[in-house]
Amino acid sequence: MSKPRQFSDERIFKGVYQALSKKGYANLTLAHIAQEIELSPAALSKRFGSKKGLLLAYSDHVIEMTKQTFAEAQSTSGSSLEALKNVFLQSMKTVGDPVSLANITSLYIEGVSDPDLLQRSCLRLQVIDDGVQQLLQSAIRGQEIKACDTALVSRVLQAAIGGSLMLWLKQSERTPDEWIDDCFEVVFASVRLAEE
């Protein structure tokens, strides 16, 4: 009798992401996720209990990955603003097209009716906001930008990027990188220190 294959959480969570990008939150099933990683839906159910249990575990994983991404950005030498921009640019590297972005985002939008998923979504947004503000404070200390209300600039930057990506859903002739560049250019125009 052969020994059953082991599947790491990371591999399973990659399958969640792939299935979610194809199906969206409302249409996602354990079978779709299992198909992505060549595992049975029963094995996923045994491990996570349910689709919701798996999505909660996936959400926790995304939160930890977000923390790690910002920690790495904060530890890089050089421009804090460039490190911050790279966080947003890297987050878009795996999104191939507007449909995938809409489907991935659906977990956070449609999941608001579930208190547990909403709590994870709010925690993720707090991690992002904290990370953005810390990098903005580093940019102030590094004299890249003037002293400013980092909470306000963080909110405006996130709103600009989030809004621009929603526009990308309908206006996909420009790349997400171009939208993100525009957001950084406009948001930081009034607080960037003049180069000597």
Automatic annotation (TrEMBL):
PROSITE patterns: HTH_TETR_1, HTH_TETR_2. The keyword Transferase does not apply. GO terms for molecular function: DNA binding. This is TetR family transcriptional regulator. It comes from Desmospora activa DSM 45169. It holds the Pfam family TetR_N. It comes from the Bacteria. The keyword Magnesium does not apply. Keywords: DNA-binding, Transcription, Transcription regulation. InterPro entries: DNA-bd_HTH_TetR-type_CS, Homeodomain-like_sf, HTH_TetR, Tet_transcr_reg_TetR-rel_C_sf. Residues 6-66 form the HTH tetR-type domain. Residues 29-48 bind DNA. SUPFAM superfamilies: Homeodomain-like (SSF46689), Tetracyclin repressor-like, C-terminal domain (SSF48498).
